[in-house]
Model the fold of this input.
Amino acid sequence: MRRKECVAMLLAGGEGRRLGALTKHLAKPAVHFGGKYRIIDFTLSNCTNSGIDTVGVLTQYQPLVLNSYIGIGSPWDLDRKNGGVTVLPPFMEQKGGNWYSGTANAIYRNIGFIEQYDPEYVLVISGDHIYKMNYDAMLSFHKEQKAEASIAVIEVKWEEASRFGIMSVDDAHQVTEFAEKPKEPKSNLASMGIYIFNWSVLKSYLLKDEANPDSSNDFGKDIIPSMLNEGVRVSAYPFEGYWKDVGTIQSLWESNMDLLDNETQLNLFDRSWRIYSLSPYQPPQYIAPTAKATRSLLNEGCFVYGEVDHSVLFYGVRVEKGALVRDSVIMPNVTIGEGARVYRAIIGEGTVVEPGAVIGDPNAAPSEITLVGNNETVRKEVSA
Amino acid sequence: MKRIMGVINLINEPDRLEELTLGRCLASVPFGGRYRLIDFPLSNMVNSGIEDVAVFTHHKYRSLMDHLGSGKEWDLDRKRGGLFVLPSVLDIPSGISKGDLFQFFSHRDYFYRGRQEYVLVSRSHIVCNIDYRRVLEQHEETGADITCVYHEMDDADDAIYRKLTVEADGRITAMQDRTGRLASRNVSMEMYLMSKSLLLDIVETCLSQGDDHLVRDGIMKNISRLKLFGYKHEGYTGIVNTIQSYYRHSMGLLKPELLRELFFQGAPIYTKVKDEPPTKYTESAGVSNSLVANGCVVEGVVENSLLSRGVKIHPGAVVRNCILMQNCEIGKDVVIEHAILDKDVSIDRGRVLSGATSAPYIAAKKKVI
Done:
């Protein structure tokens, strides 16, 4: 293998329990997003657009769809002879085997993969965030700072800060303190779960962490705190722009709705930073004479006869005459029957909403999102 | 189906699509919002299990090469077989490229190398979704020398095609150019299945007699000697080789039944992927009876139209009965009707442009109006 300056390790094993029915048979990074994408497309595209051509994808939970989706990486231009994408599931060894016990353990168990490329740096990212970021710019920052580890940080709302890994930094972007999900946060600078490490430094910490039976083998809980304790130079790379952890139904819905905002920070139409995805080879969408489509994102392969307002429709969605879809996310191949109404909902792949059925409530509180799972049938009498 | 090798024959294909074929061959004319004409024969072949496909190019094929690339989108980037794009060979002394049989002869290695028994020769301008496995089945059942795929047409003859007389047993007894007097609704879809040895035989016999056209010389002149059978294709068939037929068949896609038949009832039609985001409709958008590809931003009114990938319609604009190709931009308050705008055409605010159904207004690529 030719030497690589930087190898990316993409953590994609997340179960995404808080996404309920959507992740019953699907790892979180493979959940549909934004009308044509899956969540993992954003990080994979970021790698490609940042010039990183060697990516290890660490899978674990329900990996079938994710594995076949990633394939040899062609949609993201990661089908390379030297490097490219490699899917790295947990495996057995002579002395036994088990699941990845934490984020750090997942990297530890793939030291062999990383060392094939003898990299100077390792980029650790996760496959369940929506954002566009130039990792190459972060790497330059890392070098300028002469840091041994860098963490991308973003300012979050103070009231949400206790959900994140929170950092205190000095004037020179040096991290002075790090607290994972603190009850009383001292700052609102949150870790985005994006790390760049000097490989030699990271490797020594991974070995040490693995030898410690009390460790939970996690970057946020174990590796970063012990680096800070031992005086490793950890920098915080400030990121401004759109970033969202789509781990809950509410945040998944919000993030989809953010795309409909005219002033959205997450511009999918920027041709210099495209988000790549596997093409399902569908014809253009058909908008019938009886249809109305406003404030929405519609993908190819849709047939719209009814009204769609402020919604995101994936490929193969059919909205029949007299139906109304508002403030909703409709995943691939869903049929919304004649006269049906869908408000503030996320509807899973392949579901059929029968004629006249009503989902959600237009007057519900903003936090109330109705979730309908994959391949269900929503009947008129059952729904409220 | 590893028994058939495919040829998409672009030699002497008429390019009468006015501005649309100014800088490109017919095969690479955009169609249906995100496709090129050649996507249809190519996808049909691949979906029928044909793994060796040669495209015999003729001229103006830069954009075709760009579109086809390594054949990856059609799964034809193979170690064994796959896609062969074969450029036309000139007759060196005269500098003129001769008929298709001369080209077949020049590229005879393609036929020799293939291990298949049969050859399917097709053109690029017939839009349909067909399974050639059925054609081969019938070919073997009838014991035909050549099987010609045809369609019974019931609408306007604004394209260029050949007419056929098909007997009750399926045998074709007459074949005439459109100008001929033959009264028949049976139209050749210019897809001919035959054994490789027969094709090579036709190539050599005709060339030795100074003839060089497969259909005109090799088939039509020998119609009484050959067992020529017709295979009737019942599904959607769009013969697209004049501006009128192009416009009519494009607009025909606005019938959802046809759309479903062409794209959803058979196997998928593949094309070069562009990674455009889904199309965005804003508050002021008013779209009806239209086909819209990805990557568009629609802020105006669009009726009875086809928008290709990446088209922008500004607020106040009205687009009616139009075909807008990739990346066209329609300025504020523009009114445009019955028009075909090639790629990257932009219309400044406030303009009013209109053509007619029989003579749509056509703007060449990159024009600024």
